[in-house]
């Protein structure tokens, strides 16, 4: 039998989020039913609510940094039992048969991955998937992650998106001890990028527009802070980076960041899912530099990242909020005023 859950969602791109009642599917053979304890607030939630990327279907019920306790499992579930602490990130389904899925890259499923929110819902025709701003969710066990019980569950919530989105490119581009790594933008993603790059042994430079965040950046693990609005400082670091991870959430001038790269170095974009400002081809040609992109990470890699966080005691720096404060929190994220991820305490909705 399907169940009902309380949720917060938006009925239109210009509407505030408000209380709603939603239906969750009955637990099938391979499903895990989760009582949601915490859910992180990602900038992607805001982009989707406000239809910045187009394609939002309303109501939008965001949330893809979910931590909860298992309350029921289907008869065929082998990985989880009632009471387990689990996580759900940006993905809840994929075909599991295409070459991307077989390569453990479900985020690139060639038949269309099902994202945790705003994807067509296979179980309720005509409806979209609804995310973690909710009291409960039902997810196929293949898309549920084990959360190490050594880490704080509230701080672990953002690992499910901000964590894997920064971990995956750092690992894919083989960031290692001694590399000079720049992390651009000190928000939810950026602060995890700093922590991971530091844990991997890199020399980490926080590249920020906000001088007021310099001290925090160092506390998070940056060895240096570079204020991107200061041309003199940018000049000093020209041609010196082995790798740059760019989390800026909007289209922006690329040339100043390209100039920071060494010969053969790569800048990976994860933030700007929209047109970029034109940039000069010469900036890439002179130095054989590369610009690339990266999208979250697959389930296997997400589990590896969570296990790494368990071993190294890494969690996000968070501000816990009540569900009812979400609209104010969105305004603060937009104005780059979050230290460094909001996490909703779902007890406030129950
Ligand atoms: P966030 O918490 O808002 O952080 C973004 C940071 O970027 C801000 O704190 C600010 O840092 C900097 N920034 C903001 N506007 C800027 C501008 N106009 N120019 C230069 N810097 C600017 O956002 P987030 O949750 O980390 O997400 C970042 C982006 O990644 C969003 O667009 C989100 O949708 C996207 N995302 C992508 C993936 C993926 O798989 N690729 C996954 C999750 C999220 P400073 O104050 O330090 O400058
Ligand atoms: Zn996200």
Strand content: 25-35%
Order of helices and strands: EEEHEEEHEEEHHEHEHEHEHEHEHEHE
The CATH class of the largest domain, by name, is: Alpha Beta
What's the overall average pLDDT, rounded? 98
Helical residue percent?
Answer: 10-25%
User: Runs with pLDDT <50, length 5+?
Assistant: none
Distance between the termini: 21 Å
Q: Report the CATH superfamily of the largest domain.
A: Medium-chain alcohol dehydrogenases, catalytic domain
Protein structure class: alpha/beta
Number of H/I helices: 11
CATH domain fold name of the largest domain: Quinone Oxidoreductase, Chain A, domain 1
Measured on Cα atoms, how large is the radius of gyration?
A: 20 Å
Bound molecules: NADP nicotinamide-adenine-dinucleotide phosphate, zinc ion
